[in-house]
Design brief:
7-stranded mixed beta sheet; alpha/beta; N-(1-d-carboxylethyl)-l-norvaline Dehydrogenase, domain 2; 3 domains; Single alpha-helices involved in coiled-coils or other helix-helix interfaces; Rossmann fold; 54% helix
Amino acid sequence: MPKKKYELGLIGLGVMGRNLLLNMADSGFAVAGYDKNKEQVDTLMEEAKAYDMYGAKNIKDFVQSLESPRKILLLVPAGKIVDYVIADLLPLLNKEDIIIDGGNSFFKDTEARQKSLEEKGIHFIGMGVSGGAAGARLGPSMMPGGNKKAYNKIKKIMESIAAKVDGEPCITYLGQGSVGHYVKMVHNGIEYGLMQLLGETYDVMKRGCGLSNSKIAGHFAKWNENELESFLVEITSKIFKKKEKGEKKYVIDLIMDASKSKGTGKWTSQDGMNIGMPIPTIDIAVGTRYLSRLKEERIAASKILKGTSYKIKVDDKTAFIEKLRNALYFSFIVTYAQGMALLREASDAYKFKLDLEGVSRIWRGGCIVRAALLEDFRKAYDRDPKLVNLMVDKDIAKKLNKLQKDTREVLAVCIQSGLPIAALLNCLSYYDNYRSERLSANLIQAQRDFFGSHTYERIDKKGIFHTKWEA
């Protein structure tokens, strides 16, 4: 046991946990780490020889090494493991100690843990952390929610290690309850949508236009220099250049086309349904991942179901690729708009009192969905904090109005070529539904009333009505 007391302790010394601790040490904080896997503790101490850091071999020594009130950050897999760690900690903690869950926990689980621990006098902060292993080391984006006084006791450390944009840390207190994990969940839902859009755009260039990996890499790299500048576009451009040492083929061409997921995208879709907020691009991105796993079924279906050749037939491919860039830009904006609209609705439904300007601000750096667009969104919410949807902000609407023509032309060509572009199509469909003063829902209401006497409202007078359709 060390004689001195450490400012913060972290449980879960995988790559991300170790990197966060090293980031804290770089910022001048004395920190301690613990993991049930003693090899992880040894790895931490090997990397941390130059720092004021303690690697505990048992949880009792770990807790006793921390100054009071103890501040303990958990970076362990979401689910039951979080509860097991909390159960191990509880007998060793005092009132006013603080546990911070930095994993991707489901927000309802966070609510339950906060309630249970507050009854015992222990504060529990649910904090989304985005940026991966590199972000943890160099500066992540962090989304904390819970007791504000408890947050203020970790604020200095967290602001020090967060990514910075224009000198501002990419972290802000988001509010009471489970809001931190909710915002991180929606962040990941948006991430699903953007990744699916990038995948479809790649397929259009590869199968549709017959471009080589190096040319595809060049297009994404060029796009990343302008309005589409973002972490995901940047890494996508790099992926198409990668060959393993001694290999002739690109890595991308050797990867199975079957996506996996950890559940946050699904949670986003489910909660959108629960509170009645449409997020179709995120929904289809989740569904398309599931569809991709049906590899054997798809192979069999490819021999039975007929379509076109996937080859795009246009007179000027250079002009088409530029229009494809505009379609991707249009779709990026629409996907973010859906996610932010869900956050606005959830803020009302769950009484989060979210500041969407603040969310946009802390997503500008460190996180996976960071993009130049986030500054446009921040400005939009700064102009109108009650903005119902990003698409109707005057500056963003101007962009969409300009981009929608090229988007329609590109998607029409892709449909004729038989290319699967579900997310791109969903973005345009959402846009067209949202801008439509009148929809076909009157027929749906009539049908519901016909078979189930569910009633309907009228446009010419107030009240609830029912028609005897076969009378």
